[in-house]
Design brief:
Layout: H1 2-25, E1 27-32, E2 44-45, H2 49-57, E3 64-68, E4 73-77, E5 83-93, H3 101-104, H4 116-121, E6 152-156, E7 166-171, H5 180-185, E8 192-199, E9 205-214, E10 224-231, E11 234-240, E12 245-246, E13 250-253, H6 261-274, E14 280-284, E15 288-291, E16 312-313, H7 317-321, E17 322-331, H8 371-413, H9 425-431, E18 460-463, E19 477-480, E20 483-486, H10 494-497, E21 510-513, E22 520-521, H11 544-568, H12 582-626, H13 639-643
Antiparallel strand pairs: 1-5, 2-4, 3-4, 3-5, 6-10, 7-9, 8-9, 8-10, 11-17, 12-16, 13-15, 14-15, 14-17, 18-21, 19-20, 21-22
Helix pairs in contact: 8-9, 11-12
Length: 645
């Protein structure tokens, strides 16, 4: 429990430093010399390298530490200590810095020095970078795959590379959709993969993976159907080793494999780049390619040119034969590189990784589609949105226009809408193109807005010019709403009563109200009626019956004459309409419908009035008989003469 509590506290307090330590702060497989002897309890027992580093930070005089995970021993080192190789150990400084100098700096010209101290001082951080110091690791110290750079293809059998490498291991546990190539890409220590021509017991091609894959040109390895050499992550060159001999390297292939040494040196570099444990490669014209392979030999640390730990020779015959060579550092920087989703085929796309020296044979499988495809998709989506928005807007505008037209029509032809006497400017503009039908010339259209509204209590009389209006009219008048009109006479039938033929010359007359009420002017015409004549001033009641009889005869004659004229009316031949647009056809159709309705209404009103005229004349005659004490002046025409000559 105590150890668990200490670990939790350490993770909370030291998390930022832990992140930095994974990228250059710690040295795996190394320890410090000159352990501190004046500190009680040294070595301490700790549960992790970060906790051991915290102990060093809290101890005066401590400059570095060495931690052994298997035993949990934590050694504190003083000033003047040096790194040395120690299997299973983890060494680190008192404090970590970010970025660590080992991952970004280069040595000066004095490197390598004649002694370990001089070689260390040649580096800005005071320490020569160790193997995979700047590569990500797991908590147990083992290397993990590079998250942002999965793998790139360096050599491929499609480009003429034989791929018959030695040192390969058969893979028999592929799972599901996992391919031989994907297994190698997901394993940071896998450099080469190949598929053999023969198949296993299940009928599937045999898969091989190799940590390095040596002697791939003249080797005894299986003949592959497809093979590739991969590089995990990225790298940087720390130093050129041309003209010197680095001791402890292993020969990978001879100097006669390629036609030129330049081509051989390039492929030698590929092999070192593909193998994470390789820091040095050299190419000799005579002996070919040499690589650092820890299982075959060890290169001294740090590099020195003399002394008991000499690791570099400057004046040997082999050094003079080295025409190319480098000291590399594997790291994990750069852009994200996607993993392949299927086995590589003959149509594989090969890409050169920016910032890396490689010939045209350096290839990489690349997923996804080109950038211009994404650009075209974006443009298509934008255009589609514009079309949809435009269509919606046009639909809304068309709906508004239709509603406005319907509202104008209702307001123009509905008397209840407040436009019975006229139209507004907007309605007039809409209706100006309506074509009214041509009526027969013998029809007389009176004022369709009669009668005007008369206030309640006003009396309406029949007067002529020059006379005062009567005070009252006998029982022959009935009150209708707010106006006094003759019984059985309604406002819709008044205009038809006033109808007259075009062949007669009639004079104007009016209906006026008492108290200066508005005049109800009609198109009544009578050649025998003079202005201002009052019906009640007639002094010839004896002639009332004769005049009524004459009025009936005149009415019957006029009705017969009207029928004869209507039968003679023949409509002119229709003129073929000119080609019209859809809007004009709609307007003309509406005009024709409106004209038909007006004609039908006029016809109905005339029919009603024809039936009521006879009753009206009889009623006027009866009214005259009922008048008693009448003061009608002699010579004044009767009611029949007032309405009809």
């Amino acid at each position: 429990m105590e150890a668990l509590a200490r670990l939790t506290l350490l993770m909370l307090l030291r998390l930022p430093n832990t992140v930095a330590q994974s990228m250059g702060c710690f040295h795996y497989g190394y320890a410090w010399t000159n352990a501190m002897t004046n500190v009680t309890g040294n070595p301490f027992t700790k549960i992790s390298a970060p906790e051991c580093q915290l102990q060093c930070r809290n101890t005066i005089g401590c400059t570095g530490f060495g931690y052994y995970p298997i035993t949990g021993s934590c050694y504190l080192g003083g000033s003047g200590g040096a790194l040395y190789e120690a299997k299973g150990a983890i060494a680190g400084p008192r404090e970590c810095v970010s970025p660590d100098p080992a991952c970004v700096s280069l040595p000066d010209a004095s490197f390598p020095g004649s002694t370990p101290e001089k070689s260390m001082k040649a580096w800005p951080g005071g320490v020569q970078p160790t193997s995979l110091q700047c590569w990500p690791r797991r908590s147990d110290g083992q290397v993990t795959r590079c998250r942002n750079q999965t793998a790139i293809v360096l050599e491929d059998t499609q480009d003429g590379w034989p791929g018959r490498c030695e040192g390969m291991v058969k893979v028999t546990d592929l799972k599901g959709e996992e391919t031989c190539q994907l297994r190698c890409m997901m394993s940071p220590l896998c450099s080469v993969w190949s598929i053999e021509t023969t198949s296993d017991a299940s009928g599937s091609p045999m898969c091989w993976n190799g940590m390095l894959g040596t002697n791939c040109y003249n080797g005894n390895g299986p003949t592959p159907v497809r093979a590739q050499r991969l590089q995990h992550g990225t790298y940087r060159v720390l130093m050129q080793t041309t003209g010197v001999q680095v001791l402890g390297l292993h020969n990978s292939f001879g100097g006669t494999v390629y036609k030129t040494w330049e081509e051989g040196a390039q492929h030698c570099k590929f092999e070192c780049r593909s193998f994470l444990l390789c820091q040095f490669w050299q190419y000799s014209k005579t002996y070919g390619c040499y690589l650092e392979i820890p299982s075959e030999g060890v290169v001294g640390y740090p590099l020195t040119t003399s002394g008991p730990f000499q690791s570099v020779r400057l004046d040997s015959e082999a050094a003079a034969d080295v025409v190319a060579g480098e000291m590399l550092q594997h790291n994990c920087v750069g852009d994200m590189s996607p993993l392949p989703t299927a086995m590589p085929t003959g149509n594989e796309v090969h890409l050169v990784v920016p910032g890396m020296e490689s010939p045209s044979t350096e290839t990489s499988t690349q997923g996804g589609w080109p950038w211009w495809v994404s650009y075209l998709i974006f443009i298509f989506v934008v255009l589609l949105l514009c079309v949809v928005i435009t269509a919606v807007w046009m639909g809304l505008e068309d709906r508004k226009k239709r509603r406005a037209r319907e509202k104008n029509v209702r307001g123009a032809w509905d008397p209840a809408g407040g436009h019975a006497r006229g139209h507004s400017a907007e309605q007039a503009g809409f209706l100006q193109n309506i074509h009214m039908p041509q009526l027969p010339q013998t029809w007389h259209m009176p004022n369709m807005h009669l009668p005007f509204q008369v206030a309640a209590g006003d009396r309406i009389g029949l007067t002529v010019a020059g006379e005062s209006p009567p005070n009252q009219i006998g029982t022959g008048l009935a009150r209708t709403g707010a106006s006094y009109l003759p019984r059985r006479v309604r406002w819709k039938s008044c205009p038809k009563i006033m109808r007259a033929s075009s062949s007669e010359s009639l004079g104007p007359a009016g209906l006026v109200t008492d108290n200066s009420s508005p005049k109800l002017v009609t198109d009544i015409s009578s050649p025998k009626l003079s202005p201002g004549v009052d019906l009640r001033k007639s002094t010839n009641p004896a002639n009332t019956g004769d005049k009524a009889e004459n009025a009936r005869k005149v009415l019957e004659a006029r009705r017969q004459k009207q029928r004869n004229e209507e039968t003679k009316v023949t409509p002119s031949a229709p003129v073929p309409p000119a080609p019209t647009s859809a809007a004009e056809e709609t307007s003309q159709g509406f005009s024709q419908m409106l004209g038909n309705r007006i004609l039908q209404g006029v016809h109905d009103i005339l029919s009603i009035m024809d039936d009521k005229v006879e009753n009206l004349v009889a009623e006027v005659a009866a009214m005259r008989k009922d008048m008693r004490g009448s003061s009608l002046a002699p010579g004044v025409p009767g009611a029949s003469q007032l309405f009809f000559p």
